[in-house]
Amino acid sequence: MQPLGSSCTFSTEMNFVLNGHGTATRGTTILSPQLVLEGENITMVVNGVSILNDVSILAKNGELVTIMGSSGSGKTTLLDTIAGRRRPQSGFVKLNGKLMDRKLRRKLGFVLQDDSFFSDLTLWETLYFTSMVRLSESIPKAEKLRHIEDLAEILGVKKCLNTRIGDMFSPGLSGGEKKRASIICELLTDPDILLLDEPTSGLDSSTALTLMQQLRKLADEKNKIIIFSIHQPSSQMYHMFDKLLLLAQGKVAFFGDRSDALPYLEHMGFKCEIQYNPADFIMGILKSDDSTIKRLTDAASNRRGAISMNDFALNDKSGCFTVSVTNDALVMEKRDYEVQTSKLDSLDQNILGETEKWPTSFSTQFRMLSWRTFKVSRGRILHVYELLQSVILAVILGLVFFQIPQTMGSIRDRMGLLFITVTHWTFAAAFDAIAAFSSERGVITKEIKAKAYRVSAYYLARTLTELPLVLTLPVFFYILAYWMAGLHGVPQFFTSLLVLMLSTLSAQGLGYMVGAAFMDLKFGIFLANTVILFALILSGFITQTLPAWFSWAKYLSFIFHPLSAMSVILFQDMQPLPCSTMSTDTFPQCLTNATVMITGKDVLLNAGITLPISCYFTGLAVFFLLFRILGFVALRIRFRGRK
Ligand SMILES: Nc1ncnc2c1ncn2[C@@H]1O[C@H](COP(=O)(O)OP(=O)(O)OP(=O)(O)O)[C@@H](O)[C@H]1O
Asked: Could you tell me the distance, in angstroms and rounded to a whole number, from the CA of residue 46 to the centre of ligand 1?
């Protein structure tokens, strides 16, 4: 007798039950496949190396389809291709005969091998965000919350709902709990198809078995298509699978019912002794020498051809069909594929439904992303170390420049204080934004690729939510440093603080731009460092001896504008100061007339600050907007949607 879940689920001898929603459930087994997922002759070549070669796979409702193969055989690449994360050179992925597109991919959940989360969020917060953003707004909130509880219960993580996800620096959930958390994240959206890349890796054998039982239950009770890769399933797990796809060196070595795998391999000369774990036995074969692999993959490929030639597969649309050994089995397969292949085109494509472009509205996405950004960024930007650094640096600066006297000799000191302040917050804000993009890369890439939300909602939520956070420490710093240094004038304090805030936000915008464009921490830091140093050199505060033909370049420095604006604010109304012996180099007029008074205008002219303050504010605003707009463009290009 065929085990439950084999391709004989089509057999009329079995007991079929359709539930009230028209979805077939296994009571329990399906009469006809409502959903058939086909991967058809998929070939993937990267840098001239063939990673997948003419691989086909087919799965129907209620099936657990397992991809096995040694490391590097192409399992992840195949799952990525089915999920639409990678585009094959040739071949297609279809659902009910319809090419998978962005909308159909909504029916699909993908649990990655190394899933990424925000480590500072609790499991509940992670699941809450997912359900609020990825589940339709027509579902009441209470129902979404119940759904979270139910899934947490089913997958055995209810007790750790309030535990932080954690990371290598501050542990939280265990590896197995994280794995189950990522499965719940995907299950929350109730996908018809669930892809899992090595869901049992890193789990102990009993947790792995429990997880497999849960997946089996999902396939049986919720009638889902579940396709996953696995390395070393136990014998007990192996017998839960419906279909097996064996991959070796990117080629199919076998695809068919799990129950047919061992007879087929025996037919090919590999007999599995009764005491062996079949999975270990199969993995052993898949790690054989090149000639054995070639024999297996050629045989699998020829057999497909032979069956086609014999017209067993009829109009085989999938290009993949169960290879069986005995004549009886072939007859059985023929009947299956008659049903399957003839139905692929005629399958009710209405079952695919009209999927909304986005699961939730822009405002919901924005609200939830802001909620999450605030929780995640608050801990990062206002971290106790950052706070300590700001206080210590402000106090040191305040002490070094303590109550600077209003003399000619101190003009340079005051400029130095401004320079240090603006430079420090420029580096801090830019690097923080780059580091944040780099650390979030995994999560947002996964979510945006899954079309969970719009890039614009993410970017807007990110930039607006982080705005007050990123300004908190500079404001705090400036209050301490300004008043300790004795830079007098309340209006001057507030206006110069405004400039510092705008300057910090421009630098953060630069970080967004670089971070979004590259998302590689090392390169991002290198690039931002180079740009900031270049801007500093051009700012006119390090050297004033730029060649005349190059003097315009200072306007391209986003640091020149805030430094100039702050200088205007602090020096233009300065009390005129008499020349001193130290000022003759700086102010030549002191040479000719020692009684001349140096005004704030002289100081500014001497520093090359000649324009009205409004021009510097305009320059600042231009950089503030430009960096942010370019950041958005970079992000859009990075996540340009596939149709
Ligand atoms: N972008 C890429 N550039 C070059 N080679 C790649 C690329 N992506 C995958 N490969 C190669 O393709 C092969 C298949 O990779 P894949 O990750 O699909 O294997 P796998 O079977 O999932 O392995 P594992 O079990 O170790 O996760 C590997 O040899 C890998 O190095």
From this structure: 10
